[in-house]
Recover the amino acids of this structure.
């Protein structure tokens, strides 16, 4: 059984957002079309309390972003969400960041691997933002958890050019697909 994992398709990561990724909005129609090919779709939200450790206003490197219950933390308004059956909120601990959707940066599991296994999932197709952070760490953890992992390139966008990230993920055992046709 296969699942689509949509990572952090939130307003703050889109152009105009607090941590806007150039051209991040271009992947939304791609991801909407992809959803027709999946029976199980899960999504993640970066979900930080005010004053989160990752914020430059505290000890971190990022502008304040994806603050819980704000517009910036909502899914992109044009993202199709009616087929999403499970949402993982990550980065909620004020003192720990979480790039991976499977576990936080201190190693505490989110429950996503267990949820997917309960659903009978063995293959995960990953898309979303940002290729070089949350997608990257999620792919590594999905592989470690024993899933077959596909990354759909045209459904991802990086903060920086991410060609080397796709190479790294391929070496780690993921299958990099330009598109899914
Ligand atoms: C992300 C930086 C900070 C991401 C989240 O979703 O890739 N990047 N928080
Ligand atoms: Zn974040």
């Amino acid at each position: 059984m296969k699942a689509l994992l949509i990572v952090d398709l939130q307003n703050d990561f889109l152009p105009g957002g607090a941590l806007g990724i150039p051209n991040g909005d271009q992947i939304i129609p791609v991801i909407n079309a992809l959803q027709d090919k999946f029976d199980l779709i899960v999504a993640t939200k970066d979900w930080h309390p005010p004053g989160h450790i990752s914020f430059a206003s505290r000890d971190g490197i990022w502008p304040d972003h994806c603050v819980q219950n704000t517009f910036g933390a909502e899914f992109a308004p044009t993202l199709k969400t009616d087929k999403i059956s499970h949402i993982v909120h990550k980065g909620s601990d004020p003192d720990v960041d979480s790039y991976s959707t499977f576990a936080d940066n201190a190693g505490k599991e989110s429950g996503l691997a267990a949820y997917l296994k309960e659903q009978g999932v063995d293959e995960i197709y990953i898309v979303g933002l940002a290729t070089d952070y949350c997608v990257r760490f999620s792919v590594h953890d999905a592989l470690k958890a024993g899933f077959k992992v596909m990354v759909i390139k045209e459904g991802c966008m990086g903060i920086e050019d991410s060609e080397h990230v796709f190479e790294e993920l391929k070496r780690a055992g993921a299958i990099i697909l330009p598109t899914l046709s």
User: Anything to note?
Assistant: Helices lie at 27-34, 112-118, 131-144, 163-172.
